[in-house]
Design a protein that fits this description.
The complex is a heterodimer of chains A (about 120) and B (about 80).
Chain A (H helix, E strand, L loop, with lengths): L1 E9 L5 H17 L3 E17 L2 E13 L2 H12 L4 E9 L25
Antiparallel strand pairs in A: 1-3, 1-4, 2-3
Chain B lengths: L10 H4 L10 H4 L12 H4 L3 H16 L13
The chains are: A alpha+beta (about 120), B mainly alpha (about 80).
Chain lengths: ~120, ~80
Amino acid sequence: MRYYENLFIINPHVEGAALETLMGKIEKELTDAGANLLKVEELGKKRLAYQIKHQKYGAYVLYFFESEEKSSVRKFEDWLNIQEDVLANMTVKLDEKPDLTKATLLEDPIVDQQPRQER
Amino acid sequence: MAMMRRKKICKFCETTDLKIDYKNYKMLRRFITEQGKIIPRRITGTCTKHQRFLTTAIKRARNIALLPYSNNLKEL
């Protein structure tokens, strides 16, 4: 079994009931593709580093899933790519089973100093 | 006169619980310049192994709009 995570960005103007149906659709598509969804994390709205489809903000959602077949990942990604309200998506293969109890933070505070610039 | 240079230590070797992850973009921001370029190893002091992980993480973060590909300083 291979473990994956997919981080995708939803159009911030999709809210309420429309967002719920979209999320339902995405979940269904993933299971239909033959993958097993482990965890969904909504990471909240963020300012994008650059504009995507003329949007400056985006709602980040993180999926953890497992799958036997490589093709199911491909299928899911291809489907996401043609969705208008999904601005971007990226799948990363994980080396080991993810820790599902821990919540992922997009802003992880790390107390550290900036690397020293020479010259 | 010889310049005294402080020995640089790889941050990720020093603290093993510091994981390199593309989602932790606030941390990655320390390893890119204002323009968005990846800062070389010789300046940050990161070891070869961890620099390799860093570059992948930064490139992934760029792909999903957590970090910029480039910042035009003239526009700011």
